[in-house]
Design goal:
This is S9 family serine peptidase. By secondary structure, the chain is α/β, with parallel strands linked by helices. It has seven helices and eight strands. Strands 1-2-4-3-5-6-7-8 form an eight-stranded mixed sheet, sandwiched between helices. The radius of gyration is 17 Å and the shape is globular.
Length: 250
């Protein structure tokens, strides 16, 4: 039986998903992040499927979402990038908790996520060398370019100062794998994306694959583009993600 526990880990709200008979055992640890306007409960399917295969899965609540909401999430759309940046900052707190409680098997730590959670995954791979592997579902390793696209698409009545734009791009630069592919450090990193994605452009993922194909640090990057697939996770995609983590961490 799979256990789902609502917890406060270092004062951060999470769901912990794990086989009930293994709650006190050392297991490979995966942190899986939800998308924009969603909450941790929305990715329970992914947590459940991973837990069935022997992983301890942590589903964090992102800033401004779920129990951390401050009004409507969409009211914070100009603070979109603050959310994954905050998740990157909080990641070490989560890992330290499970390390201090001696619950991580052989330091096997993976990260994954959907949409904004996939963007968070890429940023974490750039920021944290403790992570052994990542799986990105409908995210992008191009946060700077994606941020520029978002800002360019804002309605004309939304005023954004040049200083705000400059600061946003500066903050994201050091977490951009397309600008710093050496930070992948030969770790396994898998991307799934649908070429009909209407929210996060698939071409950014495709372009990344082409740009890093001859870079030694990115030799373990893999990309699967699904023809006709939109911004939604199917059962098959979830199983693909699970199998990747089995290959990488078990």
């Amino acid at each position: 039986m799979i256990s789902v526990s609502e917890k406060q880990v270092a004062s951060l709200p999470v769901l912990e998903v794990v086989d009930a008979v293994s709650t006190s055992e050392k297991l490979p640890l995966i942190v899986f992040y939800h998308g924009w306007t969603n909450c941790k409960e929305v990715v329970l399917t992914q947590g459940y499927e991973l837990a069935k295969r022997g992983f301890r899965v942590i589903l964090p609540e992102a800033l401004y979402h779920g129990v951390r909401a401050e009004g409507k999430v969409t009211d914070h759309f100009l603070s979109f990038w603050e959310v994954p940046l905050k998740s990157v900052q909080e990641f070490t707190q989560l890992i330290n908790y499970y390390r201090e409680h001696d619950l991580i098997l052989n330091d096997q730590i993976g990260v994954g996520g959907f949409s904004m959670g996939g963007i968070t995954t890429c940023m974490l791979m750039a920021a944290n060398d403790e992570i052994k592997a990542g799986v990105v579902l409908s995210g992008t390793p191009h946060p700077v370019e994606f941020c520029q696209q978002i800002l360019s698409a804002l309605p004309s009545d939304v005023e954004i100062s040049p200083a705000y734009k400059k600061n946003q791009l500066k903050l994201l630069t050091k977490y951009d794998l397309s600008l710093h592919p050496e930070k992948i450090m030969q770790r396994p990193l898998h991307f799934w994306h649908g070429d009909a994605d209407e929210k996060v452009p698939c071409d950014l993922t495709e372009n990344f694959g082409k740009s890093v194909k001859d870079i030694p640090a990115a030799q373990n990057v893999s990309i699967h583009i699904s023809h006709g697939a939109k911004h939604k996770l199917s059962y098959d995609v979830t199983q693909e993600m699970v199998q990747k983590f089995i290959n990488y961490l078990q």
